[in-house]
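pasting for the record
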Amino acid sequence: MNLQSTDFDLFGLPAQFAQDAARIDARWKALQGQVHPDRFAAQGPAAQRVAMQWSARINEAHRCLKDPLRRAACLCELHGAPIEAERNTAMPAEFLMQQMELREALEAAASAESLDRLDRQTLSLRRDLLSTIERQIDAEANWSAAAQSVRALMFLDKLADEIDRQRARMET
């Protein structure tokens, strides 16, 4: 194993968006079993430190591979299309209008039912966007389009978090 390996190489997975979650988890468990610091107790503190570094690296890769947003961002960056969400905020006008409408709906939501409708709508948009990202990455290798879709997914995930916070405020 190499600490500089890509997350996909480290886990022995193809560098693609579509992944089997159970396979990711099984590989994580196997890798953690190989590098767990307790296995190196007899070899001294230096070996344990290296094992801890490996354990942390494997956990980091696992978080990336399990999360579709992170996995897509990682693939885009590996192929020269960094997400740069902080600096690249340009989005299509249609998407921005949709976001404004969704945010207005969130502000106007006065009941759990209205939040549930908005949540379902957001989840549907998210599923559609994940499908688009899978096509852009795995079928088309259209990295710049995929990077823009990842930025759009970040907007939707933030909106979903705000819906959850609004729901929590309503419940208290």
